[in-house]
Write a structure and sequence with these properties.
The chain is mainly α. The protein folds into 2 domains: 64 residues, no CATH class; 125 residues, no CATH class. Helix content is 83%, strand content 0%. The chain has 9 helices and no strands.
């Protein structure tokens, strides 16, 4: 019996292989919900799980190559949300509109703030873009509702403070606007 066969028959190896197959099957079940991935799998005969795992590994590799880290991070922050925002605009309901409008406000504010101190941040925190990508994914994914959480806890207090001080300085005529209370109601309705 060769060394390779001994390793392959070792109980720890067999257990690890079974666990890996279980998780791959779970991922495959989850990815079956996306018609784009199913179509890709049918056309190329490459399993969709390999495509997703390969894409994640490729993005991770690009984060190790520093000149590519910023464009990859910004692509993650722009690509899928732009597509889903387009779909939200075309859908009849307003629940997804609130999700993506809130995302774009938070993402824009974050990128604007980042532009002031990027060199300093990169000097002290070299893996910044990897963490930024994870943060952007947290903002995007409807499971976490990170954009809405960030808006309600961070941005809303700041923006309402600025808004109330600017109204006190220069009052304007009555406008029909969406107030923060209206947005909170829409977010609560979207979460249900």
């Amino acid at each position: 019996m060769s060394a390779t066969q001994k390793v392959q028959q070792h109980p720890a190896f067999v257990q690890a292989q079974n666990k890996a197959n279980y998780y791959l099957n779970q991922l495959d079940k989850e990815l079956t919900k996306y018609p784009v991935l199913n179509g890709f799998e049918q056309r190329t005969q490459v399993p969709k799980t390999y495509l997703v795992i390969g894409g994640i590994l490729l993005l991770t590799l690009f984060h190790f190559v520093n000149p590519l880290a910023a464009p990859v991070s910004n692509l993650v922050g722009w690509g899928l949300p732009a597509y889903l925002s387009f779909k939200a605009l075309e859908s009849p309901g307003h629940q997804d509109d609130v999700q993506w409008l809130t995302y774009w406000v938070v993402f824009g504010f974050f990128n604007f703030t980042e532009s002031f101190a990027l060199r300093i941040v990169l000097y002290y925190f070299p893996w910044y873009f990897a963490f930024k990508t994870v943060f952007i994914l947290w903002l995007q994914l409807p499971t976490f509702r990170g954009a809405q959480t960030t808006y309600l806890t961070v941005l809303r207090p700041v923006l309402s403070n600025l808004s109330s001080s600017s109204r006190a300085v220069a009052p304007t005529q009555a406008e029909t606007t969406v107030t923060a209370e209206d947005l909170r109601t829409r977010v609560a309705t979207a979460n249900e």
